[in-house]
Amino acid sequence: MKRKRFIAGATCPECKETDTLRWWVDHHIEVVECVRCGHMDRRSPNQSPQPEVVAQSADVIGIFKPE
Ligand SMILES: [Zn+2]
User: How many angstroms does the Cα of residue 43 sit away from the middle of ligand 1?
Assistant: First the structure.
């Protein structure tokens, strides 16, 4: 079960209402939802970028040389 807690004193950036935001953690991502207008905001606590797959092959076959 996910615990959804209201954020006391928080103001929704969409509808500007106060005390309508609740948040919970879903798959290690903080989710903030406004129960009034349905605004949702997700943010990862750890902004760790995905490691890019480096595909550097030394064996390059078939290089076309326009000469
Ligand atoms: Zn709202």
Answer: 17
- Token digits of residue 32: 């903030």
pLDDT tens-digit profile of 28-61?
Answer: 899 999 999 999 999 876 655 555 555 555 565 6
> Residue 17 is encoded by which pair of tokens?
């209402």
Query: CB atoms < 10 A from the CB of 17, how many?
Result: 15
Residue 53 lies in a domain: no
Question: What is the Å distance from ligand 1's center to 59 Cα?
Answer: 55
Would 1 be classed as within a structural domain? no
Say how many Å lie between the CA of residue 30 and the centre of ligand 1. Answer: 17
Identify whether 63 is part of a domain.
no
